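ARCHIVE RECORD
Type: protein–small molecule complex
Small molecule: guanosine-5'-triphosphate
Source of inputs: curated submission
Record status: active
Notes field left blank by submitter.
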Amino acid sequence: MLLGDSGVGKTCILMRFREGRFLAGNFISTVGVDFRTKVVSIDNTKVKLQIWDTAGQERFRSVTHAYYRDAHALLLLYDVTNKTSYDNIRAWLGEIKEYAQDDVVIMLLGNKADCGSERAVRREEGERLAREYNVAFMETSAKSGQNVELAFMAVARELKYRQSGQKDENKFSVQDYVREKQNGKPAQSFTQQQQCPQCSTN
Ligand SMILES: Nc1nc2c(ncn2[C@@H]2O[C@H](COP(=O)(O)OP(=O)(O)OP(=O)(O)O)[C@@H](O)[C@H]2O)c(=O)[nH]1
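STRUCTURE (tokenized, with ligand):
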């Protein structure tokens, strides 16, 4: 399930992951909730992900709360060019604590990482917040595709391991997996051509 303030890029992240393209142009806010599926392959096993996109707008909050309980994983987004969306993450985590299952997998994503010159939240601030709440973290860009696949696949992998009962054996940790992928060869390195043209010329 995708959560976060309105406009942080939840629908675009989902679109990038599912269809490999960026939804440019007019911003159309999600109404209530919407869902899409995608079949991915993890260690040669096909896994069907059901991904719920939620409205970030406050007025839909009571609708979206009803879906938290059934979520196995939550991708919580803020927009690195919007400090308020970052500041609101603590409130989102409070709602998650209140409405979601205790063992829900949470990943914090700082989206719009392509917008270098408009950045209002440093990467370290995202890392610090994630450490404080003991959740996995990475910066993403729905526009360039940076880390989008990695975010979904890391979560899918964690869920698969949990389901197969391997969690107790400590065989997989989403945080370690993300760290390993990012410290080694970045899953999708951020090349010059991939940069948002608008931002890179600023
Ligand atoms: N530069 C840049 N723009 C982005 C990125 N992701 C989303 N956007 C833009 O941000 C705006 C909002 O994106 P949405 O995906 O609709 O936001 P949302 O979080 O789903 O919003 P709600 O449905 O209202 O909750 C759109 O104009 C997108 O084009 C990104 O990674 N980089």
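CURATOR ANNOTATION: Residues 148-163 form the longest helix (16 residues).
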